[in-house]
Structure formats: structure tokens, C-alpha cells
Amino acid sequence: MAAENSKQFWKRSAKLPGSIQPVYGAQHPPLDPRLTKNFIKERSKVNAVPLKTKKASSFHEFARNTSDAWDIGDDEEEDFSSPSFQTLNSKVALATAAQVLENHSKLRVKPERSQSTTSDVPASYKVIKSSSDAQLSRNSSDTCLRNPLHKQQSLPLRPIIPLVARISDQNASGAPPMTVREKTRLEKFRQLLSSHNTDLDELRKCSWPGVPREVRPITWRLLSGYLPANTERRKLTLQRKREEYFGFIEQYYDSRNEEHHQDTYRQIHIDIPRTNPLIPLFQQPLVQEIFERILFIWAIRHPASGYVQGINDLVTPFFVVFLSEYVEEDVENFDVTNLSQDVLRSIEADSFWCMSKLLDGIQDNYTFAQPGIQKKVKALEELVSRIDEQVHNHFRRYEVEYLQFAFRWMNNLLMRELPLRCTIRLWDTYQSEPEGFSHFHLYVCAAFLIKWRKEILDEEDFQLSS
Questions:
Q1: What's the mean pLDDT in 423-437?
Q2: pLDDT value, residue 395
Q3: Repeat: is it a keyword of this entry (predicted)?
Q4: Long-range contact pairs involving 148-151 (C-beta distance under 8 Å, separation at least 24)
Q5: How many CA atoms lie within 13 A of 445 on its CB side?
Q6: pLDDT above 50: residue 121
Q7: Please, which residues bridge with residue 197 across strands?
Q8: Cβ(378)–Cβ(21) below 8 Å
Q9: pLDDT single digits (tens) 217-255
Q10: Whole-angstrom Cα distance, residue 159 to residue 165?
Q11: CA angle 321, 245, 229 (to 5 degrees)
């Protein structure tokens, strides 16, 4: 976690150099600029580039101070040099293991009994459950009776998708149980959120290293500026904003069939099935209808930009976080038809307003010629040239333009490069920064390039996928 004296280090520096460069056709950049070949060449270790300026040292200072900010299982109070962490005698370890196996074999349930137990369960209820479900299964019947919205039945037989990380593996969720440190952090969040006027500065400070899953929905609503800090005003604000959104639906949504809106709606309708196609949640017709309404209403209320491919991705983190407020199991397979209409309307409206607040700060990314993206890509190039001149010169030597690979990083906020659970965690930090989705995002992109600098420097054949 970053030290307090290094917080927002980059604001000490002047604005990044660079201005908007006219790049005709930026609306349709090269598709999927990626490095397609495996890095197979081995070279001797490249010496680090000496730091020349104070700005460069500031970036590396930031990298050092935040090197552990993404750890979710660390415990500052653990002392790995204590005797309890010393290596065990091998004979003692083998004897202990043998004893454990012997005890386990004596207590093991007979196969006949286990088979009969399984056969008593209806076939339609045999589903693959996550590790968090194993912990939550205790007293599940009583809990379901008390709150029908929690722990609903998952869609049967979730396919194994190795390329998509499980959404349930978020910070402070799933089994293992929370550590003392995590419980302390959660309690601090709850105290902040329940105070008469929530201290938003303190909430941002606590949110920077990650927000516990249990309080993430309310925290995101506050950090995005959707909800007021005053607790007495929140309920009325939610009611008013949700009614306002569905007022837009009644007023504008039928116009999607009009000629001047048909192109916008057609593009949204095409893009929605492509949104996280490997996660079953987003392939449900009801979810896709929700996304279509959100994106269409936003587009016609922002005619300066309208709908641009990539905006559809920005809805998904909010939708998942607000859905998790009503579902304690893995949401990636959850059947949203199990939720009431009122709950679905609340999730839809909150997702719309929070996405709108995000886009208010980066709308120039999506206006004509997308000048915001051009400016940010140029700023990234200038930043990398200062903090790692060797990587920058390597790109120039092999004629790799930053726009070719960084356009999508800015257009989709790295959502196509990271699993959804990582995006949700990253947005905890983005929302705790005053300009997290614009300025701070540049430093995250630069950090990725520096992280894999060796592989970049080893590569000589940069090919773009078509």
C-alpha cells in the first residue's frame, strides 16, 4: 500500500507534454493491436535505465511504494522470521502425515452411504458450486427462507472457462474466511458509511487498496458521485434518480425504431452479445435487454458523442457489483430471472447513472475523431520516453506506433486485457482518485509496459492481428 507521503505523487509534476495530433480515421483504428508471437528469444538481462530526472524517479518511487497494493492475502502483522515458520524436521513431517492419513481413513464415510445421499438429490439441483458456495452452504435452507434473493440456484453445469477468472474470487469474498486484518478493514468501512455525513476523503483513502465485497456497492455509489454523503438524503436520492431513469425509458426508448436512431440502436444490438462472451451471465436475454436500454438512453442523451464501440464494456463492472448486492454466490452463472422486477430495475438504473458519471470525465474519448484518446496516447508515449527510454527507443526502432496498441487501452480502459474481477478491483482505486479514469489510468498503462519491459525488448517482430 502506498505511503501517505507518496499519495498522488504524479500531481506534483507538471502536465504531461504533448498535444492533440490529428489522426484521421482514429474512429476506426487497427483492430486488436496485439503482440501475436511468443517471446522465444533469450537475451542477457538488460540493465535498468538510469534515472535522469526527478519525474522519472517519481514514477519509480510510485512503483516501489505500491508494489504490494494488489495483495489481498497479505498480513502486515505476520513475522516470517519467527520460529513458527522454520523448516520442520523431515522425519517429524512424515510421521505426522502418516498419522493424519490413518485418522482420516477411520473417519471416512462408507461409499454406500455417500451414494445414497447423492441419489436423493433431484438431478435438476446438481450444479457445480464455487468455493464460496461451500462456505455459504451451511444453514442455507434457513437463510433462503428468510431472504429469497440470496443464494439463488445457479444455472446448471457451468462450463469450465480457463481464460476467464471467476468473478467470485474478489477481494474479501469466497472461502477462505476473512483474516483479522480484513475484518478490521470491513468494520472501518462500515463505520464510515454509517456516519451521518460520510467523510469522502477518508473513504477514498480506505478504498485505494481495495474495497471489501460486502460494502463495494454503496462505496461505488458514493465515490462516483451518484449518492450524497449525507445518509438521510440517500434513500430519497435513489428513489428520485431511479424514477428519472425509467422516465427516460418511457420517453425515448421507443424512438430506437425511428430512422435517425436506427444506426445507433443497430450497432448497440450487435455489440451487446460480444460483451464478455465467455461469461454466461451476459448472454442471458434479460441482461442483454438491460444493457441495450442503458446504452441507447445514454447515447441519445449525449449527442456530441453518441454510442461508440467500447462504451458497452464500461457497463459490466457496475452491473456485476450492484448485482452482487442481492446475490452471494457466483454471479457469472446466476439466472437473473430469479430476481424480482423491482430489484432488476434498481440494478439497471444504478448501473446507468454510475456509468454516466464515469463517462462525464472521459467523454472526449468518444466525441468525433476521439481527441481524448489521441491526447492520452500521446501522453503515454511521452511518459514512457521519460521513465524508460530503452523501451521507448525499441518501439521507435521497430516502427511500433503507440496508437496501434494503446488505442484500445484508452477506449476500453484495459477491460479487454484484464479479467473482469481484476477490472473491478482496479476500479476501486480508480474511483478513489479524483481523475482516476483519465490521468491515473495513464500510469497504470505505463506500469504494464515497464512490468514486461524484458519481453518487449526481446521481441523484434511486432505483428498486428487483423
A1: 95
A2: 94
A3: no
A4: 149/326, 149/327, 149/339, 149/340, 149/343, 150/326, 150/327, 150/328, 151/327, 151/328, 151/329
A5: 29
A6: no
A7: 230
A8: yes
A9: 999 999 999 999 999 999 999 999 999 999 999 999 999
A10: 13
A11: 60
DSSP tally for the chain: helices H, then strands E: 19, 0
The amino acid at 79: D
C-alpha cell at 154: 445457479
pLDDT of the residue at 459: 87
User: CATH number of the domain at 224-360, please?
Assistant: 1.10.8.270
Return the closest-CA partner of residue 346 out of 218, 462, 449.
218
Which of 5-9, 58-62, 139-143, 357-361 shows the highest mean pLDDT? 357-361
Cell digits of residue 53: 530526472
Residue pair 352/297 in contact (Cβ under 8 Å)? The answer is yes
CA distances from 412 to 269, 311, 400, 438 (A): 18, 7, 20, 12
Which pLDDT score, from 0 to 100, does residue 59 have? 61
d(CA 165, CA 420): 7
Residues in a beta bridge with 201 = none
The 10 Å CB-count burial string (b at 16+, else e) for 223-232 is bbebbbeeee
Q: Tens digits of per-residue pLDDT, 342-367? A: 999 999 999 999 999 999 999 999 99
Please give, one letter per residue, the 3-state secondary structure of 244-279: HHHHHHHHHHHHHHCHHHHHHHHHHHHHHHHCCCCC
Three cell numbers at 420?
473482469
In angstroms, the Cα distances linking 81 to 75, 85, 86, 181, 433 are 14, 7, 8, 20, 36
Separation CA 161–CA 330 (nearest Å): 14
Tell me which of 63 and 278 has the higher pLDDT. 278
Instruction: Please report, to the nearest 10 degrees, the dihedral formed by the alpha carbons of residues 291, 292, 298, 303 taken in order.
Output: 150
Cross-strand bridge partners of residue 230: 197
Length of the chain: 466
Q: Could you write out the three-class secondary structure of 313-328?
A: HHHHHHHHHHHCCCCC
CA–CA gap between residue 319 and residue 279 (Å, rounded): 13
Q: Report d(CA 279, CA 332) in Å as an integer.
A: 6
State the pLDDT at residue 97. 62
Q: Which amino acid is at 32?
A: D
| CA 264/CA 151 separation, integer angstroms | 37
